[in-house]
């Protein structure tokens, strides 16, 4: 598989190997997000999600210096068009925020793993984006900031909803959210926001993420899709509810030939060749 899957004004999704897609943020000069950009971001991931030939995705920045500077503050100028009476204004702002949340959450609803590869600065909205990804790698030169408190609001696009569930240091997460201060890749690793710090910059961290995606794409796609679905369900539900959901899910999934193919591979000491979820496709 090679070539482009989706090419937009600010996003590019391309094949980089068998069943592996690469989505790049491409808005010069700093990948700031206006309404047009976050809408395209959500649509891009939703289109990638519809292609069952995609078994793993890497998200990175195409710009050499940074991942994203976060929100384009000019995007808030649309508020001027809303009603001035407080209650009606709030009722107009709310769906605007919900649509924004939905777009950034596209990586979470993507059925296959999404691996973020971060280099340079990742500010404000960038943390919202990372929190909705499944795995996060950071270059040694990367830096981070939950910046919203410094512009007069609580982060509302996903960071505060997810960070306590995906990281293991609540005290540090709270400190970073309350202060808006910059933190390094090593501190992001300590927080649990990152699972790996990669020496180098953009090229090195992207290659590491692509290597991981390639490894995942070689696994049973039925098992990988199920694992992501069950992990997300476990995050938001009780243990017993998740066990019952898992029983229902796997009652269907264990009927796939993938476990048999795995056992054949073990006996013959060869890599199993799993059937794809769909016929290979270069288009959506």
CATH architecture of the largest domain: Alpha-Beta Complex
Number of strand segments? 10
Radius of gyration: 20 Å
CATH topology of the largest domain: 2-enoyl-CoA Hydratase, Chain A, domain 1
Tertiary shape: globular
Low-pLDDT segments: none
Task: Give the number of domains.
Answer: 2
Strand numbers in spatial order across the main sheet = 1-2-3-4-5-7-10
What gap, in angstroms, lies between the N and C termini? 13 Å
Largest sheet: 7 strands, mixed
Share of helical residues:
40-55%
Polypeptide structure, described:
Helix content is 45%, strand content 16%. With 284 residues, the protein is α/β, with parallel strands linked by helices. It folds into 2 domains: 3-217, 2-enoyl-CoA Hydratase, Chain A, domain 1; 221-268, Orthogonal Bundle (Lyase 2-enoyl-coa Hydratase, Chain  A, domain 2), CATH 1.10.12.10. A 7-stranded mixed sheet has the order 1-2-3-4-5-7-10, sandwiched between helices. Helix 1 crosses helix 2 (86-104), helix 4 (125-131) packs across helix 5 and helix 9 (221-236) runs antiparallel to helix 10. The longest helix is centred in the middle third of the chain and has 19 residues, at 86-104. The radius of gyration is 20 Å and the shape is globular. This is ClpP/crotonase. Pathway: Lipid metabolism; fatty acid beta-oxidation. GO terms for molecular function: delta(3,5)-delta(2,4)-dienoyl-CoA isomerase activity. Keywords: Fatty acid metabolism, Isomerase, Lipid metabolism.
